[in-house]
Amino acid sequence: MHASLGDDVGHRLVTDHTVYACVMGSRAFGLATDGSDIDRRGVFLAPTPLYWRLDKPPTHVTGPLDEQFSWELERFCVLALRGNPNILECLHSPLVEHADATGRELLALRDAFLSRRAEASFRGYAVQQLGKLEADLRTQGRPRWKHGMHLLRLLLSCRDLVRTGRLDIDASEHRDRLLAVRRGELGWDELRAWVRALNEEIDAAAARSPLPDEPDIARVEDFLIRVRAASAASAPAPPSPATTRVP
User: Fold this and answer.
1) 139 within domain boundaries
2) Of 54, 66, 239, 246, whose CB is crowded by the most CB atoms within 10 A?
């Protein structure tokens, strides 16, 4: 977000122009415990006239609530088309707190974002997370088990996405074993073995996956153009320029 705009401007965009909001994290994944935070994620639509200024509106905003993070609609769609796991999971949260007409249309586009790009992105995130866990093991003597749990959850979602062409973020079927990982009860060797097994299952499913090679970019772009045009059409007319006399 541009610093010159200030947090108050970003917070007003979230407060006044959110089109979709949900709860994410362990509560959405079916892995919540008594101490789990409420992680809120959302999408706001910056009014089109703000883009006519030299200082553009923010692409994302933190707050105003604790554990709240929101993306501007266009940025959200760009990341979703790339298969970003955090973004795609937001569209599949079972805990929707708000969705106006634009938000409901965004939800109806969920399948347009899904493609083999998502498989590559999910697996790329998993590789990065595994590298961080291995670094923790070398430097601290143990990994951060909570991150290990979410690595496995991500691979489980990826496997099922590649198999079925649908994204389901509910991990409650594996809740007991995943929470055992979080508590450090499963052990590093068992965690690594589970990671290897899931990657092998994803490889096996990839050859016959129903996922298209590419997302439906045209469908998403049509949505964005229509939303931006409607926002511009509903904006107040700009003031008439002052008349200047030419000597």
Assistant:
1) yes
2) 66
